[in-house]
Amino acid sequence: MKVDVKLFGTLAQSVSGPILAHYPQGIRAGSLLEVELPEDSTLADLVAHLSLPTEELKLTFVNGRPQELDYRLAPGDEVGIFSPVGGG
After folding, report:
1. pLDDT digits (tens, 9 = 90+) for 27-83
2. CB 8 within 8 A of CB 30
3. Cα-Cα-Cα-Cα dihedral of 16, 19, 24, 29, to 10°?
4. Residue 51: which residues within 8 A CB-CB, separation 6 or more?
5. Which residue of 16, 26, 53, 55 has the lowest C-beta tally within 10 Å?
6. Strands of the sheet with 78-82, listed across from one edge
7. Residue 49 to residues 15, 44, 86, 88: CA-CA distances in angstroms?
8. C-alpha closest to that of 26 among 7, 35, 11, 13
9. Side-chain half-sphere CA neighbours of 36 within 13 A
10. Which pLDDT value is given to residue 49?
11. Could you tell me where the beta strands, DSSP code E, fall in the chain?
């Protein structure tokens, strides 16, 4: 199944693995990624597929609603993953 993913904050630089072959120009924060996952995948499976460090995750949204990592994804879902933001 395909899901659309946007990574925010520093997470775009953390992506590694085979998915990078589909994005030779690199991945930027806020860029739309089309990700193919097995049916019945969860947000945790997506995070692992992108090789994102879980300690850098702050918020995960599916179709505009906050969800936990055990949330089961469906084809066509729109996922947003945010890292913590600092500053002051």
Report:
1. 888 889 999 999 999 999 999 999 999 888 999 999 999 999 999 999 999 999 999
2. yes
3. -70
4. 14, 15, 16, 17
5. 55
6. 32-36, 2-8, 78-82, 59-62, 65-66
7. 9, 9, 26, 33
8. 13
9. 4
10. 94
11. 2-8, 32-36, 59-62, 65-66, 78-82
Vertex 52: Cα angle to 47 and 54 (nearest 5): 80
State the residue for tokens 């994804």.
73
Q: What is the pLDDT, as a whole number, of residue 88?
A: 57
| Size of the chain in residues | 88
Q: What tokens were used for 81?
A: 């993953």
What kind of architecture, by CATH, is found in domain 2-82? Roll (3.10)
